[in-house]
Amino acid sequence: MKLLFENWRQYLKEQETSSNDFCTNYPNACKNVYGTVRANMPQIKKASDFEKSLGAPPGRGIETNEPEKIPDLGKATRAYLQSSDDRGEYPRGDQVQVNTISDVDPFDLNPTQKDLYMDNALDKVATAENPGISWNPWNASILVSEDNYILDGHHRWAATIIYNKKHPDDVRTMIIEKVQLPIGPLLKISNAYCDAGGQATCEPRQSGGAAT
Question: Is 106 within a domain?
């Protein structure tokens, strides 16, 4: 915690800003922000499980291609986790393809949530700059929609952008799991997935700057 605040104070001194809002400090990165509040964003524990549910056949996967059947935020039950009823690839069927893509420029991605916190991202940057720690914010993939909006991994994305600005000779790219759905339906589906699965599938939604 002490290291976090020391790095935060140093960042403020270097940038001559008092804002803890990432988008205020990096407006170009946020110019196409979708605008969802953090409290309405899913916090998926294991992306691979979510991806399996998206691609599973009828009776084993989740409804994706009939919007009227996807429960609204806070209303999905466990029945939703096996509600797929159309075989085949989306949009004719319920099976959604997910592709792993490497070497993605973080500036090619857009934030979905509008509230991003500098102290959270800077803590991750400080960890990446610590030679005694092998974890980096770009090590693991993040979930992204087909129209390049981030579903999960916002603060790792923000940390990578900050790191690249601080280290122009060591620019880093990201790995993404690209879900072949636009962010609108993907956000609704993922929130229903979290509501239906509860603590087994997702962390509680957050309104502050913690988590990823």
Answer: yes
Which stretches does DSSP call E strand in 33-120? 98-104
77 located within any domain: no
Say how many domains are in the chain: 1
pLDDT tens-digit series, residues 42-80: 999 999 999 999 999 999 999 999 999 999 999 999 999
Nearest to 28 by CA among 109, 82, 88: 109
Sign of CA dihedral 122, 125, 129, 134: positive
Joined tokens for residue 156: 């790792």
Question: Do the domain assignments include residue 208?
Answer: no
Bridge-partner residues for 100, per DSSP? 177
Instruction: Tell me how crowded residue 108 is: count the other CB atoms within 10 A of its CB.
Output: 11
Whether the upstream peptide bond of residue 91 has omega within 30° of 0, thus cis, is: yes
| SS3 (DSSP) at 57 | coil
Q: Angle, nearest 10°, between helix axes 47-55 and 183-197?
A: 110
The answer as to whether 36 is a domain residue is yes
Q: Residue 62 belongs to what domain range?
A: 2-66+85-200
Q: What is the pLDDT of residues 119-172, one digit of tens each?
A: 999 999 999 999 999 999 999 999 999 999 999 999 999 999 999 999 999 999
16 pLDDT higher than 50:
no
In total, the chain counts a number of residues equal to: 212
